[in-house]
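Appendix B. Extra example for self-study. Work through it before the problem class; the solution is given directly after the inputs so you can check yourself.
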Amino acid sequence: MANESPTIQVLQASIDPDDTSDFRVLVDNKFVKYIVIDPGVYALDDMCFGPSLISLLPPLPSGVWNKARVSQHLDTGEPYFSEFSRVQLPGITKIWHSNQIDHLALREPRKLRSNVYEVTHPDFESPVIAKFARFEWEVPQLEVETTAYSWIEGHQIGPEFLGHLVEEGRVIGFLIARITNFHHATIEDFPLCQSALSRLHHVGIKHGDVNKHNLLIHDEKATLIDFDLASRPASENQLKAELHQLQNELLDTSGRGGRVVESSPP
Ligand SMILES: Nc1ncnc2c1ncn2[C@@H]1O[C@H](COP(=O)(O)OP(=O)(O)O)[C@@H](O)[C@H]1O
Ligand SMILES: [Mg+2]
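Solution. Structure tokens for the complete assembly:
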């Protein structure tokens, strides 16, 4: 008789010590489930380390579900699945590229930011970048960024868009070409950054989050990334103000837009 206990892997987590925490988990290497854990059910350390959390989870509910909640039982104090159901999760609706890539085909993930990974995929010779909505509340920003990539397609402004990323039938993000041997912009790169931003403005788009970590300098040019606050149309004044602000952004030393300390595995 085969072992019936499922394999569970925590893919991403959004942990709040004082509120509910959210987990995106993969069951039997195939099914993605979204699990909310009530505050106080588990110690923070256990939630921050995927294998610990998995060893403490109550047995997964049987049946068809993709969203569930773990609460503490009022009588026994034990954690249990207080809710579980099959829900239609929101997805990105702006599907403009012909390529759709299943998230299960991504390999060797290397986390760059909470929702940005360097990954490999059999269709691509070298690693690529995957950016996606870990949780449903991130879908709107990925929708904006996906749309912005359609606007800049062919304009030599951002990395090449390689396709939409799909999870169980819905689009959760995208793959873009990985820029290699880059550095984040400094004030010395001002002319290159100015010309990249001007190209974006030339097609009527305001970036909305210009900072040195969103300007990758390589091969004697600047590539803009991170379009989740992009907007079009933008007024002449808005574009002028954004260009005017560029120099200050390159001089900024606050670390804004850079690496953040995260509380999420793996
Ligand atoms: N196409 C890419 N090639 C290489 N590195 C990238 C690429 N896209 C993103 N990155 C790296 O990941 C970081 C975060 O990506 P970004 O899209 O700016 O996410 P966030 O919205 O979290 O700021 C970037 O600052 C950069 O270091
Ligand atoms: Mg960024």
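Self-check: The two ends are 32 Å apart (CA to CA). If your reasoning did not lead you there, revisit section 3.
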